[in-house]
Specification:
With 632 residues, the protein is α+β, with helices and mostly antiparallel strands. Helix 15 packs antiparallel against helix 17. The protein has an eight-stranded antiparallel β-sheet, with helices on one face. A six-stranded mixed β-sheet has the order 2-3-1-4-5-6, with helices on both faces. It is globular and about 100 Å long. 40% of the residues are buried. A hairpin with a 3-residue loop joins strand 7 (220-229) and strand 8. The N and C termini lie far apart (80 Å).
Amino acid sequence: MNLITGLLRRHLFATLNRASRNDKSKTKIIKMLQKNIRNFCIIAHIDHGKSTLADRLLELTKTVEERKMKDQLLDQMDIERERGITIKLQPVKMTYKEYALNLIDTPGHVDFSYEVSRSLAAVEGAVLLVDATQGIQAQTLANLYLALEQNLEIIPVINKIDMPNAMIEKVSKEISDLIGTKENEIIKISAKTGKNVEKVLEEIIKKVPAPKGNSDQSLRALIFDSYFDSYKGVVAQVRIIDGKIYSGDQIYFLKAKAKSEIIELGVITPGLVKTEFLQAGDVGYIATGLKEVGKCRVGDTITKYKSSFKDSNEIEKLIKPLPGYKEVNPTVFASVYPVEGDEYPNLRDALEKLKLNDASLSYEPESSSALGRGFICGFLGMLHLEIISERLSREYDMNLVITTPSVSYLVKKRDGKEITIFSPTEMPDPSQIEHIKEPWAKLEIILPKDKIGSVMKLAEKSRAIYQSTSYLSEDRVILNYEVPLINIIVDFYDNLKSISSGFASMNYEQLEFRVGDLIKLDILVAGEKVEAFSRIVPRSQSQEEGKRVVAKLKVAIPRQNFAVALQATISGKIIARETINPFRKDVTAKLYGGDVSRKRKLLEKQKKGKKKMKSFGKVGIPQEAFLSVLKK
């Protein structure tokens, strides 16, 4: 009896608590708390110290216990730690004095600029971090322009002032000239030692405005990232723009037109910490319980679902969707095939889950007579391709064949039709083609003045068209070019770093498609066309590229028991050739003298055997061969 009474009492208290949610005094408290929320991110060029600064902020605010602290704490993936770069944006809530600080750590590499743009849409301020030893770099400018487009409050910070080669005054002047701030307003810190990092927190509280959302209005939450959990379904990382939401509420996804019930919600510290509710201005997570990953899209708006709603049209009339994000346009395309054909369903599932966690990845099924069923995937650059292939291998245990990266082309046929092709295998017969258009990009290179000559030679080799030169400081310049996109996605960045001794940096953005004199280059291995090695190249560079590929393959493909011919062809015409010599067994080893005709007979027999083997022998091409061709 006592047990039943206790349960009834507990139920009564729960009902009273639920009823008190609309109480004015509670709403007032929520509004007061909202004044003390600061949402910000850290933007910078790669390797300028974003993750290290995030570590110091976590230490200062005692968000993470000292015994659990480690370098690059917000870089959750092993691959991020190994490479020392941030790949995924990562939110974390910190408490400092009476303020709630929501930090979103962002990547710095050009291939992950989409992650940066998503972070900027969820915050009101940005810490612009510049390395005192390097100064302003290309991605510093790119990220700054993105932040200014969002009208964010910019807090300039110079890092690594403890380094012996720090150029504090020079870099201060660069930043001052760039954003118009006074040099004495720029915070000088050492994220490594923690010097002056507390000043960054004080400046964030002072300058970054509190969120403007209204907790009394209808719920609108922006999804800026998501991932799949086996137990909780799709977990969405959200910024609450308006309204408030409680665990157990029914929610509706405006773009996906899907309904769900919240299993759990809370904040990220950086572990998941359950809370009773999330309010306007908060950054947190919502475990949606959805098992279909396609229903929870990055950039979608979540609102509360009410039984009084008649249909989705009525919801969309009453709730205005948030701007979300512009659709990302992949720039690099490559086909991905499982080595074992029966692994195709597993590859499809793996890509679906990665797409949820990485909105910039795109994929569509395709098939090849040589490689079986696979997917044509779109990436934002070569590093992005590399990271995705490594994640598929590590996280999903996939053994893959990845074709030569390419870009999309517009092909106008003689009958007037224009088609988009993402792979050389889709190229129509040359006799049907009127012209081919390729994508061009605006390229911005920041470099020391004394490296201009060598960088200009590199740009010239890449078919770049010079536009202008401007000076960032007395000894640092910005070169602007227009260049075919294919010429900068593969190895331009590596070559640029090499010839500039690591001092140059680059940023690019896609322009329009332009007509080019392009042809399809095919590679034959032992007389068979290998579609994975086919590529679209400028006619003027076709012979050089053909020689390069067959020379690489000669080293990468293992020797066989028969001679293997490697040929580069254009429309059936051979333009370059190499031969992999066969293994040769010494069949005369057991002969001890005697008639020479016996020796000739054995050698002739061996020759016939090799000829027969060549007619039906198959050449196994290892993954290393595909990868070696990618690197120029």
